[in-house]
Amino acid sequence: MGLIIVANWKMHKTTGETADFCRSILKDEKQFGEVEVLICPPYTSLTTASGILNGSTLNLGAQDLHWKQEGAFTGEISGSMLRDLGVEYVIVGHSERRHVMGEANARIRDKVKAALESGLKPILCVGETEAEREAGSTNSVIKEQLLAALEGLGTGEMKSLVIAYEPVWAIGTGKAAQPADADSACSFIRQVLQDEGGSETAGKIPIQYGGSVKEGNIGSFVEFDSIQGALVGGASLQADSFSALIQAARKAVQS
Ligand code: PEP
Q: Would the pTM of this model clear 0.70, i.e. be above it?
């Protein structure tokens, strides 16, 4: 399985800034080789990004979606609306959605289902808080989040997922997980996926690490067989340094 590297811009960039970034990163497209690169801008920049990335090897993702396809949900965006804009992936259950917006496991499961029904590939984020880690509950928290999100999915649907292991305490803090700890969490995730869907299905689901990833540390994560890429926040905002990060990941798996 190849690497997949996701840029999560969160609430950053106007349409003009999005256009500048996309044009700039496309200049390095050939250097990314077999690494799949995915840009997740805010909703307001999806059309701009889609217009520029169309025809390239870079893919487009959204950062969230609503759990219904339409209805009286002021301010919300549905999976079918995202597909209509050429979006292929959608992040679901990001820690900021779980812990800042208060999304519970049941809501995240509904969003995973809505994404799949719309033909979007969900990037399901799971991960423990610092207190949960200190209490020794990392694996049980991850398992609970995974099992809730996978409930009712067939193996065909499971194969469309990407899982991002993102310890909450490592996101946006500059304090990345120890690569060996990320390896053990990602291996545990693979085991849970295997128990739920069998090894053939589990073997088709990329598992990423996310949390303060940058050019200087990406190699130490992706060199583990258990980790097939990264979900990158802050270090994905500048085209030059994000490009360098992708190339560092590619180099690390080649060596
Ligand atoms: C994220 O947005 O999921 C993330 C991991 O952010 P950062 O890379 O800034 O820690």
A: yes
Q: Is 94 a catalytic residue?
A: yes
d(CA 124, CA 174): 22
Tell me the CATH number at 232: 3.20.20.70
User: Which residue in the list 103, 128, 157, 166 is annotated as catalytic?
Assistant: 166
Place of tokens 């130490």: 220
Per-residue pLDDT in tens (0 to 9) along the chain, 255 residues: 899 999 999 999 999 999 999 999 999 999 999 999 999 999 999 999 999 999 999 999 999 999 999 999 999 999 999 999 999 999 999 999 999 999 999 999 999 999 999 999 999 999 999 999 999 999 999 999 999 999 999 999 999 999 999 999 999 999 999 999 999 999 999 999 999 999 999 999 999 999 999 999 999 999 999 999 999 999 999 999 999 999 999 999 997
Domain holding 113, by residue range, is 4-254
Which residues on adjacent β-strands are paired with residue 40?
Answer: 8
Name which of 94, 4, 89, 96 is nearest 49 in CA terms: 89
Number of structural domains (the chain) is 1
213 lines ligand 1 (CB under 6 A): yes
Atom of ligand 1 nearest to the CA of 230: 5
